[in-house]
């Protein structure tokens, strides 16, 4: 803390006395809002832009910290009779003398307060530094010391550097706050003071003085100190723009620093970081920048800190890392021992890009994407080049404008050019070759000629496409008695050279018709397949004039692009729609209940056209002899089946192909396994010309056989009994510890495999891990730990039937499902026959338990579900099937 002593006069009766006053210099206290903003542009990476306050307040030690108030609380009153004339007041304020205040009552002689409202630094065109300040200073001694001065004090060198008469300004607001201080109405000031340029970087204070000396400001006086003033001593700059036509580049921006206030030369230098040398320099004139001055009011040269310099573009600008330098110096050549330099962030050489889309839908090549590289600041000509990788040649090149890309700028804020890097361009109809791989090159070049290759350039290579796509879709079929209509769309990259489109219809592998197609607009297809060549012109609708009853067998449709006008050619692109059945059916259900059978399903056949009679015929599933036939009547046949029409739209009448009939005369089929035939015929008796559909074998009763398996269905049609009549095989005497492989032998033999237990025992892997193979030997006569888990014997099962299903931990229902499908199941049982583990073969079930073949006893047996589960659970619920 610094102090300064002043002498204050006061009256003691008729005598003037002097009192020493010590003023303590305080640091500035900032009040109010800080000014924030930018000059032309916000600072970029590597730059620091501070926003100093331009409003401040200082309290001197001689002034009260709060507005002075009379202790008595009395209010001053202005006597109009004694008020001074306005003319006299005006005369006083035209110089540095405050008017004699005769109206203020109860003047507080010791009052001394003030406020520095604002201050700023500037520099004139001839380089003169000027300090401008506004504020107020009210003193109770102003009638005795009426002459006002402003003194600039250099805190750095501890000396006064300038003083200037201060013309009083009216401040009614101060008078309102200090009504009992003489001349508070004229306490304001607004002053501009010239300063030496070197002071721009010093710490300064302002001293407002009331003095009784109208010549020098000395004599008896009252001072109020403001400061130290907060000056911006940062080196600030911004590179606003870099613009190039490929031959020259112009850089513009601003550079402001108080350290440069005494520097009269301003240069812009181009520095090559890659080569570590200067490329060029240029002296620039002082450019007016009121925007910079507004943001940085305490930098002297902020108002004339602008610059613009133009340089010739050389290859180094594109190929090397370039950095611009702004220099203030006192050397006419731009050097000097004392320079103020600002190194702008190097030009970002990050090369970024993305190809958003390639659209070939109308035969033109349209590309959209973006390519950002700040090298483009020097290489402004943007080209798009299509390159055939397969053939190693350029297909096309065009100069293409880049457009705004705020999304890219957001993603890459360090790239100056990211905000103007997008392209959306139509390259036209190009000579593309089907099957070739293509890349797109985005190029920024200094040259506008050709593809930009004659200048300095930077490229970004995008993987564009391989012309090998082919897509089609059949939207619908419309069958009629005399023709078949097919409509949909087809598109292929091969159509770049194969210009003819055909639809060809085959029957049982032989062509029966072909039609050349005139492709039509399909914008819906183009939206989904924009990268497919001419997908916009892909629609077709074709009629094959063939009667429906001649479209029998299996149909195929070929959609072809070819270079042969007749639809042939040695090189065609074909899409096949195969296996189009013309006679399709399904028996949805065959239910036996209450001595009647209900049969329902559907039968769609082109050959049914013209056949007006429908029959249901029952055949013996074994002998295939007819057992009975029933003619279907109205309400039983030709039922609506939209579901069938959706699956078989090309079959005429598929939408009314359903049938549903209840048979009551069933004595001829009761307790039999039968095959039903649904027949369309032109004969009232059910013979003549006909087309048939066959069901799978079905059992007409609750008890029935399928192969060697005997089944029972309950009243709800659910199988509640099955017994697979599998041969029982005993493990003894050959395999005393081989129950597992013996059980597997029974399962495989029932599956039709010609194997025996000894053969499989020898095939079974051996391992110390039962999950990998048999532990020990199954031929050994007893012993502890001689066994194998499902995983260890599964390879044997897989070798003979192709699959193995380790069912360990499965549900009881899963086991039942295997048995219903005539797959036996080997299960591991704990604590059976006195063994810790034993394996049996399950062959069936009823409502109470499982049937099984036991390899130890060589018998067929049954156990309850409860007993089974207890034993099965005791051996980790192990199970194996296929």
What does the model show?
InterPro entries: KxYKxGKxW, Peptidase_C39-like. This is C39 family peptidase. The protein is mainly beta. The protein has 6 domains: 156 residues, Sandwich (Immunoglobulin-like), CATH 2.60.40; 108 residues, Immunoglobulin-like (Sandwich); 115 residues, Immunoglobulin-like, CATH 2.60.40; 95 residues, Immunoglobulin-like, CATH 2.60.40; 119 residues, Immunoglobulin-like (Sandwich), CATH 2.60.40; 162 residues, Cysteine proteinases (Cathepsin B, Chain A, Alpha-Beta Complex). Helix content is 11%, strand content 41%. It is built from 12 helices and 48 strands. Strands 40, 41, 42, 43, 44, 45, 46, 47 and 48 form a 9-stranded antiparallel beta sheet that branches. Strand 19 and strand 20 form a beta hairpin. Helix 8 crosses helix 9 and helix 8 packs parallel to helix 10. The two termini are 98 Å apart. The N terminus is likely disordered.
Q: Short description, anyone?
A:
With 882 residues, this protein is mainly beta. The chain has twelve helices and 48 strands.
CATH superfamily grouping of the largest domain: Cysteine proteinases
Q: Judging from the principal axes of the Cα atoms, what is the shape?
A: elongated
State the secondary-structure class. mainly beta
Number of beta-strand segments? 48
Poorly predicted sequence stretches spanning 5 or more consecutive residues: 1-93
Q: Indicate the radius of gyration in whole angstroms.
A: 53 Å
Q: Which CATH architecture of the largest domain would you pick?
A: Alpha-Beta Complex
Named CATH topology of the largest domain: Cathepsin B, Chain A
């Amino acid at each position: 803390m610094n102090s300064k002593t002043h002498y204050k006069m006061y009256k003691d009766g008729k005598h003037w006395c002097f009192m020493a006053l010590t003023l303590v210099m305080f640091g500035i206290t900032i009040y109010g809002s800080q000014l924030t903003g930018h000059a032309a542009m916000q600072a970029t990476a590597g730059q620091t832009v501070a926003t100093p306050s331009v409003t401040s307040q200082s309290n001197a030690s001689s002034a009260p910290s709060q507005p002075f108030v009379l202790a008595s609380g009395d209010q001053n009153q202005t006597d109009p009779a004694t008020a001074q004339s306005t003319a006299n007041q005006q005369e006083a304020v035209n110089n540095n003398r405050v008017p004699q205040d005769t109206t203020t009552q109860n003047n507080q002689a010791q009052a001394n307060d003030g406020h520095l409202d604002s201050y700023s630094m500037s520099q004139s065109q001839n380089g003169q530094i000027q300090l401008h300040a506004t504020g107020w200073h009210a003193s109770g001694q102003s009638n005795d010391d009426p002459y006002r001065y402003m003194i600039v004090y250099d805190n750095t060198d501890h000396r006064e550097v300038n003083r200037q008469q201060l013309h009083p300004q009216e401040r009614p607001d101060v008078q309102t706050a200090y009504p009992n201080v003489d001349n508070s109405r004229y306490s304001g000031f607004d002053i501009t003071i010239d300063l030496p340029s070197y002071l721009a970087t010093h710490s300064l204070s302002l001293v407002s003085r009331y003095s009784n000396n109208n010549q020098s400001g000395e004599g008896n006086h009252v001072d109020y100190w403001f400061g130290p003033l907060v000056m911006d001593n940062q080196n600030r700059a911004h590179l606003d723009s870099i613009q190039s036509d490929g031959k020259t580049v112009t850089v513009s921006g601003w550079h402001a620093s108080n350290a440069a206030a005494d520097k009269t030369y301003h240069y812009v230098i181009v520095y090559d970081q890659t080569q570590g040398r200067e490329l060029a320099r240029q002296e620039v004139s002082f450019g007016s920048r009121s925007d910079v001055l507004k943001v940085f009011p305490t930098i002297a040269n902020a108002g004339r800190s602008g610059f613009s310099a133009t340089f010739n573009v050389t290859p180094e600008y594109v190929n090397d890392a370039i950095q611009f330098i702004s220099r203030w110096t006192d050397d006419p050549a731009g050097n000097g021992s004392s320079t103020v330099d600002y190194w702008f962030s190097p030009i970002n050489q990050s090369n970024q890009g993305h190809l958003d889309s390639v659209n070939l839908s109308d035969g033109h090549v349209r590309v959209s994407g973006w390519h950002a590289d700040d090298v483009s600041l020097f290489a402004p000509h943007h080209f798009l080049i299509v390159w055939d990788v397969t053939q190693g040649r350029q297909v096309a090149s065009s100069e293409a404008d880049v457009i705004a890309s705020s999304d890219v700028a957001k993603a890459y804020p360090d790239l100056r050019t990211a905000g103007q890097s997008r392209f959306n361009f139509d390259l036209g109809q190009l000579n593309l070759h089907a099957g070739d791989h293509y890349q797109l090159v985005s190029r920024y070049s200094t040259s506008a000629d050709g593809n930009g290759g004659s200048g300095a350039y930077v490229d970004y290579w995008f993987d564009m496409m391989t012309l090998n796509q082919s897509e089609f879709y059949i939207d619908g079929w419309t069958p009629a008695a005399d023709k078949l209509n097919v409509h949909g769309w087809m598109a292929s990259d091969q159509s770049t050279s194969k210009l003819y489109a055909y639809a060809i219809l085959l029957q049982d592998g032989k062509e029966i018709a072909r039609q050349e197609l005139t492709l039509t607009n399909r914008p819906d297809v183009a939206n989904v397949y924009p990268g497919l060549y001419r997908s916009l012109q892909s629609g077709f609708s074709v009629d094959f004039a063939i009667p429906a009853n001649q479209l029998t067998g299996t149909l195929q449709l070929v959609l072809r692009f070819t270079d042969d006008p007749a639809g042939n050619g040695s090189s065609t692109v074909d899409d096949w729609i195969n296996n189009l059945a013309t006679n399709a059916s399904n028996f949805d259900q065959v239910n036996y209940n209450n001595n009647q059978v209900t049969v329902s399903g559907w039968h769609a056949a082109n050959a049914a056209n013209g056949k007006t009679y429908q029959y249901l015929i029952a055949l013996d599933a074994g002998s295939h002899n007819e057992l009975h036939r029933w003619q279907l009547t109205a309400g039983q046949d030709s039922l609506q089946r939209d579901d069938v029409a959706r699956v078989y739209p090309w079959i005429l009448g598929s939408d009314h192909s359903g049938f549903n009939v209840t048979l009551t005369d069933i004595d001829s089929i009761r307790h039999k396994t039968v095959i039903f035939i649904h027949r369309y015929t032109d004969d009232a008796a059910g013979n003549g010309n006909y087309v048939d559909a066959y069901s799978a074998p079905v059992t007409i009763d609750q008890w029935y056989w399928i192969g060697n398996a005997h089944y029972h269905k309950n009243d709800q049609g659910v199988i509640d009994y099955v017994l697979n009549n599998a041969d029982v095989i005993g493990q003894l005497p050959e395999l005393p510890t081989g129950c597992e492989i013996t059980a597997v032998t029974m399962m495989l033999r029932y599956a039709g495999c010609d194997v025996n237990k000894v053969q499989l025992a020898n095939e079974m892997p051996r391992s110390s891990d039962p999950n990998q193979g048999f532990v020990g030997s199954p031929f050994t006569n007893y012993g502890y730990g001689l066994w194998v888990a499902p995983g260890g014997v599964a390879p044997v099962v897989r070798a003979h039937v192709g699959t193995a299903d380790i069912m360990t931990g499965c549900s009881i229902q899963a086991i039942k499902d295997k048995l219903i499908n005539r797959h036996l199941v080997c299960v591991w049982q704990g604590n059976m026959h006195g063994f810790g583990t034993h394996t049996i073969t399950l062959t069936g079930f009823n409502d109470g338990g499982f049937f099984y073949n036991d390899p130890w006893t060589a018998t067929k047996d049954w156990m309850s579900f409860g007993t089974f589960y207890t034993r099965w659970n005791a051996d980790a619920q192990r199970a194996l099937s296929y």
